[in-house]
Amino acid sequence: MMLLAGAALYTQASANAALTSEGTVKVDFESDARTIVLIGASYAGGWSLDGRLAGYRVINKGVNGQQSFEMLARFENDVLALKPDFVIIWGFINDIFRSDRSKIDQALSRAKDSIRTMVELSRKAGIKPVLATEVTIRGKDGWSEALQGVIAGMLGKSSYQDYVNGRVKEVNRWIRDVAAREGLLLLDLETVLTDQQGIRRKEFSLPDGSHISPAGYEVLTRYGGTQFQAVTLGH
């Protein structure tokens, strides 16, 4: 099974920009470069590099705070209408964040249905879907958050971090199974940013424990460059 990982992000304002003899910028929007759309929420939207990777241009369609069913709702306009060669489908963390714990099973079922539908729509449109695993979180920086985790452990209760990460890993296992079963390209981001305990490494997280740090995106970009070039050579 081939792996496809994240890439430098692309904005049309920087597409094929070149200086003319007069020193002005000429932008060519008719490039024949193969295209990837990256759809997701804030994690995807925060990958703010402009440019190309391995001959592909990547259009960022991350929208802060969105759940997977909201990504599905805009899939036609933000993905299908652009007719890319690939679409990277990344993001269900907000399905967990915004769900009541008593309804988390229903929320995760809806997330899986949304991801599955985006895959089906992509294939029908002749677009190659790429499934991405979600990244885990870590506790917020600060003594009060650490103390709460210790107390929860003493009481035999799971911390919020453990609760979220457990659900993330559950759906990620499903994503890997779907990718393997259906022969889809897989972007396994979870494993890139975690430590041996499966928790996001501190240097790859902002102080809120959720969003990805510049160092985290740098690692994803290096990983993505290697994997993406391998896929390009394979084709």
Nearest-angstrom radius of gyration? Answer: 19 Å
Give the CA-CA distance, first to last residue.
Answer: 13 Å
The number of helical segments is 9
Q: Helical proportion?
A: 40-55%
Q: SSE order in H/E notation?
A: EEEHEEHHEHHEHHEHH
**Quick one: CATH class?**
Alpha Beta
Main β-sheet description: 6 strands, mixed
Q: Reading side by side through the largest sheet, how are the strands ordered?
A: 4-5-3-6-7-8
Nearest-integer average pLDDT: 81
Low-confidence stretches: 1-31, 142-147
Shape: globular
Strand content: 5-15%
How many structural units, i.e. domains? Answer: 1
Number of strands: 8
Which topology does CATH recognise?
A: Rossmann fold
What class do helices, strands and sheet pairing give?
Answer: alpha/beta
- CATH hierarchy: architecture: 3-Layer(aba) Sandwich
CATH superfamily: SGNH hydrolase
Task: Describe this protein's structure.
- The protein has 235 residues and is of the alpha/beta class.
- It is built from nine helices and eight strands.
- It is globular and about 50 Å long.
- The relative contact order is 0.17.
Task: Summarize, please.
37% of the residues are buried. The protein starts with 16 loop residues before the first strand and ends with a helix.
Helix/strand layout:
Blueprint: E1 17-19, E2 25-27, E3 34-40, H1 42-45, E4 52-53, E5 56-62, H2 68-73, H3 75-78, E6 86-90, H4 93-97, H5 104-124, E7 128-132, H6 143-154, H7 160-182, E8 185-187, H8 190-193, H9 214-234
Parallel strand pairs: 3-5, 3-6, 6-7, 7-8
Antiparallel strand pairs: 1-2, 4-5
